Amino acid sequence: MLQLRKKGAGKMDVNATDGERGNVQAAGGGPMTSLWSRVSWKKPLSLTYAEESSENPHLERTLGCFDLLMIGIGGTVGSGVFATAGLIAKSYAGPAAVLSWILAGFGCILSGASFMELSGLIPSAGSTYAYAYHSLGEMPAMIAGCLLTLEYGVASAGSARSWSDKFESWLHQMGVEGPVWMKPKDSSIDLYAGLLMSLCVGIVLCGMSAGKQLINIVTVTKISVVLFIIVVGLTKFDSSNMDPFIAPEHINAVDQVVFGWPGVMLGASASFYGYIGYDEVCCLAAEAKNPTRDIPRAVFGTVVGAAFLSTLATLSLVGMQKYTEIDVAESYGTALRHVGYHWAAPIVEIGEVFTMPVGILIGFLAQPRVQYTHKICDNVGTLIAGFGLIGIAVCIPFKYLWDFISLGILLAFNLTNTCLLAVRYRSCLCTPACINSASNPTAAVVALFLGVSWLSAYHIQESLLAPRGSTDHWYMHTYGPVAAAVFSVASGRYICRENGWNAL
Predict the structure, then answer these.
(1) Cα torsion through 132, 134, 135, 136, rounded to 10
(2) How far apart are CA 11 and CA 25, in angstroms?
(3) Distance between CA 254 and CA 245 in Å, rounded?
(4) How far apart are CA 492 and CA 504, in angstroms?
(5) Which CATH number applies to 61-428: 1.20.1740.10, 3.30.70.1130, 1.10.287.1490, 1.10.510.10?
(6) Coiled-coil region(s) at which residues (predicted)?
(7) Exposed/middle/buried for 36, CB within 10 Å: 0-12, 13-18, 19+?
(8) I want to staple 432 with a disulfide (CB 3.0 to 4.6 A). Which of 19, 33, 123, 396 is the partner?
(9) Are 280 and 68 in contact (CB under 8 A)?
(10) Residue 162 in contact with residue 83, Cβ under 8 Å?
């Protein structure tokens, strides 16, 4: 990987203003500095510009809009739909898995708008971490860094486990039996996943120039495979497999309400895994040739492209085969054989096996950039992270990682939206005195947003996803949503009136 090294880490640029020096000293912590002032200190934007121009000679700006778009699409398209489309359709939503992907895509477009705006305002490496550091403070930034590690690093390890299942299935179809010790049947150990993760770590250590060309080539191939699945699958589309479109709901073994509209919502939550990648583009802002122009374009293109391709690929899957018969481990290959396309199944399986690793590579590619913004520098930090993720890939099955990854994604997206609110209601972003002003109404706006987000999640959980025998089921289906809506509107009006705003 390119040398992620900050020689001046912790030092103030000589051209910084007196206010910025004072803030840096306060953040460093003197005997009279309170804990709150340390954790809530916000990094001035002018300090970021100084660091980007003087301390990052090793981060060459080599990525154009096409490169960023390929990185975004390579990290989303295929990696999610290959790994999760069959599971969502069979276990959660049935044929309505198509709606799950659309709903998740709509949510990602809304959050993507926040990333697009913030990437133009704060063109710094680190994505949500950088945005939180500028708008919310040091403690929220630290939380953002942990969430991004969960989203990028751990997600890449989870994808490696999913790839291993497909690789083993492909070997079996070829009549080849791999060594039993590589993936013992009665053990969670998976050395195939660890080997792939090791390869990705090695490629990242070689540098961006080598990785960029590989990513571009494999991403174009991956898009071709997905388009092949869509076109070939839709030629054998059977509308009877879509009946009923909204499958009857029931409670599964872990007390979740699946299928029906609750299953659609669960599937939408799981589908967020298939959209990991568009925000990874923002982590590479320090290496983009024109970040304020190219990053927003790449983010928008990635989200729209991923939503379009993933939705159509899922539609072709549930149209070819009844959702109850879908093979979760090898969804598309099995479905193509089911409709008689035995010649197409090997093409898809080979395409999946040889293109899924690029999503894993891109996921890990963003991890050193997050560490870089934390001032965890040099190749040593990359090696430490790599060894940790190799261990996760070897030891922890994908089904245990999935929910944690989705949780990290949703929280990171929500935190980014919070950052945008904070930036919008702090007009003097570049002025340290304004950033740390106690009279700024940003806290009230952020508190309202988080409160409404919590109420929305709680009511969806209790009204749609909770078991039907729960004691508050009647309340959640009658007065609960109305009460939450009234509270949200009343709180917004109160904040507007207190601050003299015409609208929130």
Answers:
(1) 60
(2) 10
(3) 24
(4) 7
(5) 1.20.1740.10
(6) none
(7) exposed
(8) 19
(9) no
(10) yes
Query: Cβ(140)–Cβ(421) under 8 Å?
Result: no
Here the tokens at position 313 are 């690929």
Give the ranges where 289-437 is alpha helix by DSSP (H). Answer: 291-320, 331-338, 344-373, 378-395, 398-424, 432-435
What is the spatial distance between Cα 97 and Cα 257, in angstroms, rounded to a whole number?
15
Per-residue CA distances from 187 to 181, 190, 391, 399 (Å) = 10, 8, 15, 14
CA–CA distance, 44 with 53 (Å, rounded to integer): 15
- Both tokens of 174, joined, read 């070829």
Question: What secondary structure does DSSP assign to 228-240, as a single string?
Answer: HHHHHHHTT--GG
Are 159 and 359 in contact, with CB atoms under 8 Å apart? yes
C-beta separation of 96 from 85 below 8 A: no
pTM of the model: 0.71
Give CA–CA dist 504/500, Å, rounded: 10
Q: Where are the domains of the chain?
A: 61-428, 441-504
At residue 421's C-alpha, the angle toward residues 417 and 426, to 5°, is 145
Distance of CA 493 to the CA centre of its chain: 33
Beta bridge partners, 288, equal 63
Longest CA span, the chain: 75
Residue carrying structure tokens 């809530």 = 40
Q: pLDDT by residue for the chain (504 residues), tens digit each?
A: 344 434 333 333 333 443 444 444 444 444 445 666 666 677 777 776 666 665 555 566 777 888 888 888 887 886 677 778 888 888 888 899 999 999 888 888 888 888 888 877 777 777 788 888 888 888 888 888 888 877 778 888 888 888 888 788 788 777 777 787 888 877 888 888 889 898 888 888 776 666 677 778 888 888 888 899 999 999 989 888 888 888 887 777 766 677 888 888 888 878 877 777 777 787 777 777 888 888 888 888 888 888 899 899 999 999 999 988 888 877 888 888 888 888 888 888 888 788 878 878 887 877 777 776 666 556 677 788 888 888 888 888 877 777 677 777 777 888 888 888 778 776 544 445 444 444 455 556 666 666 666 666 665 555 555 554 444 555 555 555 566 566 656 655 555 555 555 444
Q: Tell the residue number behind the tokens 């919008």, with chain if given.
A: 424
The token duo for 234 is 């839709």
**Cβ-contact 415, 128 below 8 angstroms:** yes
The total of other beta-carbon atoms located within 10 Å of residue 25's CB is: 12
